[in-house]
């Protein structure tokens, strides 16, 4: 399959017996997985997504948030965030929260040329599980509050990046610092009326009449709409008024956001003073919100670039809705678009060989942008 999976929200999907809770891609995937939110998805392998093809060309995974994903099977190595049988270039993503004994990302022997750069992995058991003894490129990431940064060839490598740096070629310049997010539960409350779907703008309006927010105070943050705030199911906030929050898609047809249901506003963007700000010399050329990188003296780690004023056109509401997604080339598992939340599967025709891709990736990051996918 050739194309891009971009600007989607995959939340609350599951595949209890199979792979790919949010997305299952059958066959070789040539393209990028960019600007997506994967929240509270689960599967036996690849809670967020699963790439089926063994070996071959690299896929770019960039500027995504992976929040509260998990594994539904008994094998805890299966990649709660994602599982990829092919090479992947994983750049500027934020992976947050994992259950005990679960791995966040799984890379088997068929993905030996994979790259991990400028990512945040925080509050989980194992960040990256290598099923063999691979020579992955793992550089300029932040690994915080983990049991194991790397599980390699059935060996637990611990959570000290400086120790691993001395042991493994390709592992370098990684941090162990608090991520410095704005925070979870920055506001909480209870919805005071049923959600209303605005079909003209493909968004749902959620109301808490007890609030007096500033206009767009929460734009760019996430609202957790799951029935339990222990396992949070997030949706990006597009806009807000004094008493209302707008999220993409038709939430009104679900049980989420119901009158009397509690919610929290969680903001996984970087706060001023975070060690992730200006921590890298190279990186992706924009962030999850579409803000240009870098904003300061260097590139930030994670899916968010701390905003200082420079802006490029954002990931606005002009993209095609999920009705335009086709499954001709990809098996999209579970509820990819239960409520119009997925925004589109775009195609292009560019193909790059795996070894050339990794070389192109590292070279192009030196000039401040990702290679074409």
Explain this structure.
Helices cover 5% and strands 35% of the residues. It is mainly β. It contains two helices and 29 strands.
Task: Set down the secondary structure blueprint.
Layout: E1 2-6, E2 9-11, E3 14-19, E4 23-25, E5 30-34, E6 37-39, E7 42-45, E8 49-51, E9 59-62, E10 65-67, E11 70-71, E12 82-84, E13 88-91, E14 94-96, E15 103-107, E16 115-117, E17 120-130, E18 137-139, E19 142-152, E20 155-156, H1 161-167, E21 171-172, E22 181-190, E23 196-198, E24 203-207, E25 222-224, E26 234-240, E27 244-248, E28 262-270, E29 345-346, H2 354-365
Parallel strand pairs: 1-5, 2-6, 3-7, 4-8, 5-9, 6-10, 7-11, 8-12, 9-13, 10-14, 12-15, 13-16, 14-17, 15-17, 16-18, 17-19, 18-21
Antiparallel strand pairs: 1-29, 19-20, 22-28, 23-24, 24-27, 25-26, 25-28, 26-27
């Amino acid at each position: 399959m050739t194309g891009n999976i971009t600007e989607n929200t995959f939340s609350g999907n599951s595949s209890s017996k199979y792979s790919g809770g949010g997305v299952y891609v059958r066959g070789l995937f040539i393209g990028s997985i960019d600007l997506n939110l994967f929240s509270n998805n689960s599967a036996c392998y690849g809670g967020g997504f699963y790439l089926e093809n063994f070996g071959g060309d690299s896929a770019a995974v960039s500027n995504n948030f992976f929040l509260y994903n998990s594994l539904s099977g008994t094998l805890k190595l299966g990649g709660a965030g994602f599982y990829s049988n092919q090479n992947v270039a994983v750049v500027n993503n934020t992976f947050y929260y994992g259950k005990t004994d679960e791995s966040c990302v799984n890379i088997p022997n068929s993905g030996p040329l994979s790259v991990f750069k400028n990512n945040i992995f925080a509050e989980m058991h194992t960040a990256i599980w290598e099923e063999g003894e691979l020579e992955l490129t793992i550089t300029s990431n932040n690994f915080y509050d983990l049991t194991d940064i790397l599980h390699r060839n059935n060996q637990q490598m611990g959570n000290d990046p400086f120790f691993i740096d001395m042991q493994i070629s390709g592992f370098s310049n990684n941090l162990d610092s608090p991520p410095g997010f704005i925070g979870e539960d920055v506001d909480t409350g209870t919805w005071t009326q049923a959600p209303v779907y605005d079909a003209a703008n493909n968004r749902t309006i959620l109301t808490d009449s007890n609030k007096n927010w500033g206009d767009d105070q929460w734009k760019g943050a996430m609202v957790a709409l799951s029935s339990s705030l222990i396992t949070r199911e997030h949706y990006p906030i597009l806009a807000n008024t004094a008493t209302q929050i707008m999220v993409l898609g038709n939430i009104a047809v679900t049980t989420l956001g119901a009158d009397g249901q509690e919610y929290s506003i969680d903001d996984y963007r970087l706060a001023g003073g975070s060690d992730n700000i200006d921590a890298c010399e190279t990186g992706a050329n924009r962030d999850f919100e579409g803000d240009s990188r870098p904003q300061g003296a260097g590139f930030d780690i994670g899916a968010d670039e701390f905003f200082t004023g420079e802006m490029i056109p954002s990931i606005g509401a002009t993209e095609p809705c999920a009705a335009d997604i086709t499954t001709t080339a990809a098996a999209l598992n579970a509820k990819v678009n239960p409520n119009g939340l997925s925004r589109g599967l775009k195609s292009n025709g560019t193909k790059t060989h795996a070894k050339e891709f990794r070389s192109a990736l590292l070279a192009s990051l030196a000039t401040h942008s990702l290679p074409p996918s």
